[in-house]
Amino acid sequence: MTRRTNTDPDKGDARTRLLDAARDIVRRQGFAATSVDQLCRAAGVTKGAFFHHFPSKEALGVAAAQHWSDMTGALFAAAPYHDHPDPLDRVLAYVDFRRQIIAGGIEEFTCLVGTMTSEVYHAHPALRQACAASIFGHAATLEDDIAAAMAARGITGMTPASLAAHTQAVLQGAFILAKAADDPQPAIDSVDHLKRYLLLLFQPEEETT
């Protein structure tokens, strides 16, 4: 009989495997419905290994939110939308990039921290705060480009932070619609509407009169 270990060179250490399992399972079925036993089975680790790394499922959720931020942060930092010289083009290309990665099963493109937030915002304050840090932290990466685009086109009456947050509100709402319909198309349509809104918002005034 082969003894199961908590380290696999192909899958990472036990902690990383548990975080990856949480990322996949929670996006598919939610935080409340995900059990420690299920996470351990998916990660191929013992329950003892789980509690060695995380004192509770909530603690795992907090760490999973940070793990998600690290993973997605690297993805977006390397994305090609940063290459455009015009800041508005970078913002629009960001939206295009979000549309492009709506692919595969719904659980594959929806947001882990958005999924957890809707369940835990009252019952698990520490987990809600970790999810908020992830969502608003990602939104903040858009603020400099939005600010530059506003300045270049004389756009006033709003803040870059509020518009950056609005982009995330549309995206998170789009994921909810996709789940409700069990179909990615409503998410794609919502992202398309977001781009149309941004184009109208930044359209020169003389073109709207």
Automatic annotation (TrEMBL):
DNA-binding residues: 35-54
PROSITE patterns (UniProt xref): HTH_TETR_1 (PS01081), HTH_TETR_2 (PS50977)
One Pfam family linked to the record: TetR_C_13_2
Domain HTH tetR-type: 12-72
Annotated keywords: DNA-binding, Transcription, Transcription regulation
UniProt keyword Membrane present: no
SUPFAM superfamilies according to UniProt: Homeodomain-like, Tetracyclin repressor-like, C-terminal domain
Keyword Iron-sulfur assigned: no
Protein name per Swiss-Prot or TrEMBL: TetR/AcrR family transcriptional regulator
Organism classification: Bacteria, Pseudomonadati, Pseudomonadota, Alphaproteobacteria, Rhodobacterales
